[in-house]
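User: Can you write out an input/output pair for a complex, sequences first and structure second?

Assistant: Here is one pair. Inputs:
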Amino acid sequence: MMVIIKTDKYPDIARPKINVGIGDCKIASNPHILVTYSLGSCVAIVLYEPRIKTAALIHALLPEPKNSCDNSYKYVKTAVPKAVEELENKGIQKRRLIASIVGGASILKSTMSMLIGKRNVETARSMLKTHGIKLVAEDTGGSHSRSVYFDVATGKLFVIAPKFKLFGG
Amino acid sequence: MDNIALNKEYEHTALYRLLGEKITEALKMLTGADVVARVSGIRVADTAQVIEKYSKDRPIVAIASSIYGGDIDGQILLLLDVPTARDLVSFLAGMVELEPSDENAQDILKEFGNIVIGNISSILSKTYMCRVVYSIPEVVVDLDTAIIDSTVLPIASKYGAVELLEISISSTSEQFKLRIIMLGAFI
C-alpha cells in the first residue's frame, strides 16, 4: 500500500535518492527513494505499483497548458498520461497503479496563487479518475510548503512541512 | 495584449532611478534617517534561470502583492533573507530594542512593502496612463522555492519573463546596508 507520514524533519533513510525537479518526472524501483523539494502551489503526484515496487513521481507546476505544451511534465493534465505511458513502457499495468497527491498550497492569499494550487489538485484528481487510477492518500491545500520523500520499497510517503519564524525558535 | 514587462520603455533605467528616489523619500520621512535607496534591474526571459538563482531550498522572507489595472496583471515579490528582514525591522522601528513578536515584525515589513509596491503602482499608473492598483502586501516566511513556484513562476512560465530588481538601501552615517531582491512578473 501507500501511506502518508507527515513530519517536520527530513527522514534519515540511507538509500539512493533520485531528485525530481519542477516540471519533471522520474521513475524508480526498490531500493530507491524519490524526492522532490519545496512544493508551493505545485503538486507532486506519485503513481505506484506496490506489487512490483516501482513508482513515478511527478512535480507539476500548472494545471494545463494555455496553448502549446512545451513540457508534458510541467502541466498536470499532460503529465499524468505521459507518466502512465512511461510506466506501461516498462511493463507496468495501469490497472495495478495506485496514487497519492501532495501540495497545491496557497502560500499567499492572492487570488492567482489560490487558484493555481486548488486547480492543480482538482486537475490531478480528475486525471487520475480518467485513467482509472485509485487515489489512496492525499495531503493538499493549506498555506505551507511541503517536500516529499517516497520510499519505493515500503510505500511510505514522507511529507515534510517545516515551520519558519522570523524571530525566536 | 501587450506584454508590459517586455516593453523597452519600462526597462529604462530612468524608471528604476525614479523608483529609488521615491523609496528614499518615503524611508526618510518614515525613519528620519539619512538613507539612500538605489534600484537596478534586469529582465530574465528564462524561468528556469529564476528557479536556479532563487530556489535554494532556504527559508526566506517574502513580501508579496498582486498588482493589476489596465492591461497589467502580475505579482510582485520582495525577497529578503532572514537576517536582512530582521535588520530592516530594526531600522524601520527606529533602532529601538524591540520585543519583536512575529506579528509586530510582519506589520512593519508589510508597511515597507506598501511603500515599495505603492510607488511601483504609482509609476506604472503614470507611465501607462491607467489606474494600477495592488493588494495589501502579505508577509510569508517559507522555503524560497515554494514561494517562487506559488507566485511568480505560474505567471512567468505562461507569459515569458520575470523582471528582477535589486533594491539597495544604505545609510553612510550609520553604516547601514540592506540588499533586497524584487521579482515581478506581469502580463
